[in-house]
Amino acid sequence: MIDTSITRWLPFLGRRTAHATRRPTGSRVTRLAAQYDAEVDAALQRLWPKARIYHDREFTHDRADFLLVVRGRGVMIETKVKSDPGVFRGSTLPPLLDRLQRDGRRLVVLLNQGDPTPARDLISTKLGDKGQIIVWSGPHHDTDLKDAVETLLQQTTRHA
Questions:
Q1: pTM of the prediction?
Q2: CA spacing 20 to 30 A to 106: which of 29, 67, 93, 146?
């Protein structure tokens, strides 16, 4: 039997299809991201045991992964996973930053590894002092996470 599916041959013709650009759900980065989100969730519970933690498990570009509500005040938490220790430029952040800028929300971006300097500049430009990015790769970075969140919590207004 001859395979007549055009999508099978398009990559050989130098064209890319939407299917060819999607990351498979079983990819290494996807597995790392799921594990990282679980570790972040545990850290949030550990650092703020009385907080309400909402985890948005649906993948979107314009919503943060977590909403942490402490003492009636909320901070959005976005997790980013890099499979290498290189520079994180934040190219996936603009839709989220635009939405949070409109909503006036606070954001902490947690990066598992790498240099966040370019992304820090992007966040600062869009959110000013309402956004921070830190490298968090485990309990040894809990102090940095707690400081970042508490700083932003002091700025926010109460949630309804």
A1: 0.79
A2: 29
What's the chain's Rg over C-alpha atoms? 18
Q: How many CB atoms lie within 10 A of CB 154?
A: 9
**101 CB contacts (<8 Å, ≥6 apart)?**
126, 127
Output the six-digit token pair for 1.
């039997």
- The residues, ordered by sequence, that sit 6+ positions from 160 with a Cβ below 8 Å of its Cβ are none
The residues with which 87 forms a beta bridge, in sequence order, are 115
Structure tokens at 60: 């979107």
What are residue 151's DSSP bridge partners? none
Would you say 95 and 64 are in contact if contact means Cβ atoms under 8 Å apart? no
For residue 155, give Cα distances in angstroms to 1, 69, 136.
Answer: 66, 13, 22
Q: Which two tokens stand for residue 6?
A: 């055009």
Tens digit of pLDDT for each residue in 71-129? 999 999 999 999 889 999 999 999 999 999 998 899 999 999 999 999 999 999 999 99
| 42: helix, strand or coil | helix
**Cβ-contact 89, 119 below 8 angstroms:** yes
Q: How far apart are CA 159 and CA 70, in angstroms?
A: 10
**Which distant-in-sequence residues (6+ apart) come within 8 Å of 47 by Cβ?**
142, 145, 146, 149
